[in-house]
């Protein structure tokens, strides 16, 4: 997410919780200093994303303008499309990997524990005709299956699964990045 979009979203979220939030509270919600928030608010007012009114002599109230809300929606859509494109690229790469797994004589992919990208593994296995299953991280590692240690397992559990023959999700992603960078050269 782009820095301005992230700040605008943080401001929006804070104002949703407290419509009279101070600059200090907006800054805390965004993880920046009050001085930086002051500069951000001025920049966003100039862009037409934020407006402010005087509540009293010492207090200002901030609100997102329709243009600010539109900017969040527009950039959110762009972010979502980019994320879907990345997911599609990884899906294609995992399909390619699982084709190799099938060629090596394996008929099953087993995810041990949990993973944010379980859906990619399930989809890719189905695409190449491999059985996919997910089991608990403490299940016995099947030596005749392609075994994946989920990245959401505790670090020591992941290491133990890798030592027993599983492949780490991180290694799959790293191998994929290397393939992508080599293809780009």
From TrEMBL:
InterPro entries: WH-like_DNA-bd_sf, WH_DNA-bd_sf. It holds the Pfam family HTH_24. This is Winged helix-turn-helix transcriptional regulator. It comes from Treponema peruense.
